[in-house]
Design a protein that fits this description.
alpha/beta; Rossmann fold; eight-stranded mixed beta sheet
Length: 297
């Protein structure tokens, strides 16, 4: 993986990883920019990794300290076979990183599973949060799930398709980017690189299995607590940048975010899909820069 980072997609993602031991293995993370600058903490989802935020890292690392972990099982982090990979585990791991690096006044950026993980972090450490930037995600219970993802939860079939045929990662490159011309060979290589074997795709499956669709699910209680804790941040500055062509986190989730955070600044991208930063990062970066600078006053 480290070797590939200097070949197939080096220009897209030129950074070395830092590592933090989190008990079950090492969690990789980027730490770019001045150490005394305001903190941007960016949390990815499944089946992405810190590579997803590469254009934001490039845009903001001159003015901010940009921290981007790879969740355990993802990217350059270790991928233990017998790890629970539950929502609470990921929240604990990011919390350990925040505590170890002594991060404060955090500007939190979230997408996909990063929403539940990041807002779970915020609920556990509200005094450390400053602003929020939200891309297509959820941090509250919902019974809405795409049929294709629900199929991947079927015992046996899910493991074969996700871990055996890498269907989840490959399908995401087909369905989650509207403008396919943006998926250059280097970008495709970046998304595919960490998930090249059955063993390395363990978290791709576990994330899908951890979607809590009913109260009996082990992660349901945690997601309920995260959702209930969101209200304490209703007066925090928040920017929501939403992709209209997202088959996973569609407009019903966008409306829920706006209901919960009526003061949030919102931007809606009609021509973008779930990987909104692939389709629209050139437009998002100046909006995000203006938001961070104006809300700092």
């Amino acid at each position: 993986m480290e070797a590939m980072a200097t070949t197939a997609f080096a220009q897209e993602y030129p950074w070395d990883a830092h590592y933090l031991e989190v008990g079950a293995g090492r969690m990789a993370y980027l730490d770019e920019g001045p150490r005394d600058a305001p903190v941007l903490l960016m949390l990815h989802g499944n089946p992405t990794w810190s590579f997803y935020y590469r254009n934001l890292v490039k845009a903001f690392c001159g003015q901010y300290r940009v921290i981007v972990p790879d969740h355990l099982g993802c990217g350059r982090s270790d991928k233990p076979a017998d790890y629970p990979y539950r929502l609470e585990n990921h929240i604990e791991n990011v919390g350990r990183l925040v505590d170890t690096l002594k991060l404060d006044e955090i500007n939190l950026v979230v997408h996909d599973w990063g929403g539940a993980i990041g807002m779970g972090l915020a609920v556990s450490r509200p005094e450390r949060m400053r602003r929020f930037v939200v891309f297509n995600t959820a941090a509250f219970p919902s019974d809405l799930i795409p049929f294709s993802i629900n199929l991947c939860r079927i015992p046996g079939f899910g493991a074969l398709s996700i871990r055996g045929f890498n269907a989840f990662v490959r399908a995401s490159l087909s369905w989650c980017v509207k403008d396919k011309a943006r998926l250059t060979p280097a970008v495709r290589a970046g998304y595919l690189a960490p998930y090249d074997t059955w063993t390395n795709r363990v978290a791709n499956l576990r994330f899908v299995q951890d979607i809590p669709m009913n109260a009996r699910h082990p992660s349901h209680g945690m997601l309920v607590r995260v959702g209930e804790g969101l209200s304490q941040f209703k007066d925090h500055p928040m920017m929501i940048a939403w992709a209209a062509k997202d088959f996973v986190f569609h407009d019903a989730f966008f409306e829920e975010w706006k209901t919960r955070f009526p003061k949030a600044q919102t931007h809606y991208f009609e021509d973008a899909a779930h990987y909104v930063l692939e389709d629209a990062h050139e437009r998002i970066v100046p909006l995000m820069r203006t938001f961070l600078e104006s809300s700092a006053q």
